[in-house]
Amino acid sequence: MKKAFFVGLLIFSLLVNISVGVVIARHWWHVQKRTVINLTECPALSSDDVQKISQTWSGPAKLGIMQTRRELLSKKAEVLDLIAANPGDLKPAENAIREMINLRSSLEQKTLDRISHTMASLEPEKRMAFLEFLKNRTCTMKGPGKGFGKRGGPGCCPPDEGARTGPGM
Predict the structure, then answer these.
(1) pTM score
(2) Residue 134: pLDDT above 60?
């Protein structure tokens, strides 16, 4: 009886250790995969350049953007609540919608300011590589109407030359 108990405990312990190892390996793989993707999307940027860009994006500016995002999400929820309370009538939600638009505008302004500051800190050839990286990223971003990682949603980026275009392609 004791032997069976200890064998069961040993097997349970091994399974827990294997599970923890799998979780850690999966996390490590995804972190490495993200770094590799960022560098391969724009091979002209070295890992030192990526680190320099990351450092320029830290600090109070990053906190300000995060705070504005939180406020925007809160305002979106408020607008949806107002719409749900008055279906078919947007009049009661007009002020909240205007505030949401102002927050979105503020967020875009802060983001573009951050990008401008980053570009100013790079050498001209690295600046062009960073610009190309940003353009490629806007073409492949997930979002409404763009599919998951597909290029060229409505009004996004022009299709590649020679690429077939049209519905379902």
Answers:
(1) 0.55
(2) yes
